[in-house]
Amino acid sequence: MSDKKILIMGSVVAALVLIAGGVYMTQANSGDPDFASCQKGNVAGGMESFGTDFTLTRDDGQRVTAAEVFTKPSLLYFGYTSCPDVCPMDSARNAEAETLLKEQGKDVQTIMITVDPRRDTPEVMKDFTDLFSEDMIGLTGSDEEIAAVNKGWRNYYRANDDEDKEYYLVDHMTNTYLVLPGNKTVEFFGRDVEPELMAERVGCFIDAMN
After folding, report:
1. In the predicted model, is pLDDT for residue 5 greater than 90?
2. Could you tell me the domains of the chain?
3. Could you give the CA distance from residue 103 to residue 179 in angstroms, rounded to a whole number?
4. What's the whole-model pTM score?
5. How many angstroms separate the Cα of 18 from the Cα of each of 14, 205, 207?
6. C-beta of residue 143 within 8 angstroms of C-beta of residue 57
7. Which of 70, 79, 128, 184 has the fewest CB neighbours in a 10 Å radius?
8. Are 59 and 131 in contact (CB under 8 A)?
9. Residues 72, 73, 79, CA angle at the centre, nearest 5°?
10. What are the CA-CA distances from residue 192 to residues 18, 49, 195 (Å)?
């Protein structure tokens, strides 16, 4: 199969995943009383059903737990460094929202967990995250570890590597999650949310924490 056909098929599947994810993420009210005035996203089972404990490898090679990662409000994204367009754009948007919040005196961080652990070594993750923010954290791990953490955030992904084990696309959902200290997921943001609006909504949660 040609690279062009692979890219077209990958884009179609990814679009279907994004549509399905968008529908799924608006089925029911999340209903967290602590942040009711801030929450805009609705999700089946409530936002409390998202997240899991984990131990992964940080982009500096250190093994870290969820408790060690989520020490401040965090914008969590699942993607991969070989992604041709979506992941770089989403990472840039998240980094811009981080900058806007820090200019307001709000301490936040951005995190990307790979959906392509075979190619995304800690060194590769660091090269990628440094393109967007020197404070962005990249996390990788074994196939089993990555599968478990994606399951915890109900994130679909699939590598299209049946015919080529080196150059392939990975279908994945593209939501960004707001995770508070204590590994508490309270909100999600779709790809259509601009950085200014993301910063405003995240700022609401941070203000409500204080």
Report:
1. no
2. 3-209 (3.40.30.10)
3. 20
4. 0.83
5. 6, 26, 31
6. no
7. 184
8. no
9. 110
10. 11, 23, 9
| Four-CA torsion 75, 45, 86, 129, nearest 10 degrees | 30
Q: Write the single-letter amino acid at 68.
A: E
**Which amino acid appears at position 6 of this protein?**
I
**Is the distance from CB of 205 to CB of 101 less than 8 angstroms?**
no
Q: Which of 32-46, 88-102, 105-119, 196-210 has the lowest mean pLDDT?
A: 32-46
Predicted confidence (pLDDT) per residue in 18-66, tens digit: 433 443 444 334 455 678 789 876 676 678 889 999 999 999 999 999 9
> How many Å apart are CA 69 and CA 96, to the nearest integer?
20
The residues near 83 (Cβ < 8 Å, ≥ 6 apart) are 169, 170
Contact 122, 140 (CB under 8 A): yes
Distances (CA, A) of 199 to 23, 44, 52, 61, 119: 24, 24, 25, 30, 31
